[in-house]
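Shipment paperwork, digital attachment
Item: protein structure file
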Amino acid sequence: MINEIRMAIADFLNTIIIDNKFLFFNFWHIVHFTSGIVIMFFIFRFYKKTKGKLLILLGLLILYEVFEWTIIATGSTLFRGENKLDVFFDLVMGLAGGILFVCFKKFWIKNNKTPPPRIERGSHKGPVLKTGAIPLRDGGIN
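Attachment content:
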């Protein structure tokens, strides 16, 4: 049952949308694009003061491609159709997702005076929502 579901997912993700001499595109590229966004989010979250965040992303994407090739070498059918062009577009789509995240973050900071709300753990039960609001003396919020 689980193997059949895995095969159905793999078949769907391996559906070729565009395949010509210069471009190879399947649904895996959408996964790589989305993973570029998610990985860049975590890079910004945990490496705030580090420069070269796109290089970190590129390194992680290359490591993932090495992992894919290792899985292919074991005979798994999850990743099929991997060739040099496909690997190149996997990296391009992951980087494009990361660049989109960086652009969105810069756009957000430029157009909003307050940073996006973040959740921090307070000393009481449950998280505290920090919005940058200023408390007033009478207990209200400005």
